[in-house]
What does this fold into?
Amino acid sequence: MPTFVWEGRTRGGEFRKGTLEAQSDNDLIALLRQQNISVTKVKKKGRELKLSLAIGTGVKQRDVVVFARQLATMIDAGLPLVQCLDILGNQADNRSFAKIILDVKARVEGGATFSDALASHPKVFDNLFVNLIAAGEIGGILDTILNRLATYMEKAMKLKAKVKGAMVYPVAIGIVAVLVVIVLLWKVIPVFGSMFRDMGAGELPALTQMVMTASNWFVDNVALIFISIIAFIVGFTAFKRNRKGKRILHLILLKMPIVGPVIRKTVVARFTRTFGTLLSSGVPILDAMEIVAKTAGNVIVEEAIMYARSQVAEGRDLATPLMSTKVFPPMVVQMLGVGEQTGAMDQMMQKIADFYEEEVDVAVGALTSLMEPLMMVFLGGLVGFILVAMYLPIFELAGNVRSD
It folds into this structure.
């Protein structure tokens, strides 16, 4: 179906323009007339040859948050959904996202529900987004749901950014340490070895000899080492993508000292925030638990939630099976049980999420404060060890000269 570029005016005289697929220009004019738009200019859009180097959808979560906020405002102001999507699609700065919005608009015009149209782009709008929109459509509170979604996504982005920020420093220091060691072993230490031979140094100190041996081995096997590193990265990536491998990795991360508690608090905050948002929006508890499990980000937590879901489906309460998994802290499960008994589980979930997000702030701050001096000591100690090993023969030669 060809695409047309059009310009026109509404009955109120407002200038409008956009792109739309239609069988012919007459069909386009008729379609826009139904939307009370008088077309003043229309032409067929020529084919464009573009080289796309983008990986994935090219749509950031921030784009989706802004879209949800703007759409909620426009719907609250009384604008029809199709018109809202048309405006947002034509004004979006991200052209990839603009195409997706206009495609959603076309599907809605074709008779699909808004949630079904969003579900056709699962890489941009996940199950959580689609199910909440469906609940909003059924309940007639789409603007409220969109604002709730935007708030949830903003909090999730903030939480994710804090955890990532805490990992940037140690990862950067680790990379610098590896690069420094490679340069010393590959380029610097062989120069010292040649200098010692030219100086006629006799038997080298054990520490120096150990470093020299390591350097000689590295230079002789540098190609094999780099191939092994690449093979390890490929193997680890494949292991991480495998369900069993991912499960082992996530279990190790949860049980690690220092890092494990931070990850556990992050997972609890995400679980309670997502679950509370779904329940408060009217999503049935079994559907909500399935969505929460899929968005948990940790296989161990996902299995625990799905186990609890199976127990709830059989008529049991939620708190007891969650407690038996020993994944969630007792305080969380007990508060959840209280919320279940009082019928205010969604509110209780939001309170738990607020508490644990603050806990993550404190834990990330403490982790960063602890990691910075440890990494500096590690890097300084590593480089200092190698330099002392290289200068020991020089100190011995200088001592022998003074003795003579």
